[in-house]
Amino acid sequence: ILYWLGHSLSCIVLLNIQKHIKIYGKVQGVGYRNWLQSFAIEYGVFGWVKNNVNGEVEAVLIGQEDVVSSLIEQCYMGPPNSNVEKILIEDSDDIYDLRSFEIVTDN
Asked: If I label 38, which of 14, 68, 73, 80 is the partner at 20 to 30 A Cα–Cα?
């Protein structure tokens, strides 16, 4: 993303990062995916979230580093009735061209 500063040739380049996260604990059946989608949209983060058959929630978060980090911090809190035990966070090298945040329903 490039932001031009006035009419000068200077610009600020904002690079997106991509994180792959797995959230463990009581995170299914409590509205976690909808909650994360809502926060991601509010934060301007693209990606996806899904439930895994082993009980974890998995997501890819794409956005500015500080924004993605803030969203991950919120993930530790989770929605009411959730109980996050841990979050595994990895850099993602997969290629996504996403312009929204989706809930994936297939496992």
From this structure: 14
The Cα-based distances of 106 to 4, 56, 101 in angstroms read 41, 14, 15
Cβ(89)–Cβ(42) under 8 Å?
Answer: no
Kindly state the tokens that stand for 17: 């990062």
pLDDT digits (tens, 9 = 90+) for 5-19: 555 555 555 578 999
- In which residue ranges of the chain is pLDDT below 50? 1-3
- β-strands 101-104, 57-64 pairing: unpaired
20/41 Cα distance (integer angstroms):
17
d(CA 68, CA 106): 24
Provide the residue type at 20 as one letter: H
Positions marked catalytic: 33, 51
Q: How far apart are CA 103 and CA 51, in angstroms?
A: 9
> What is the C-alpha separation between 12 and 30, in angstroms, rounded?
40
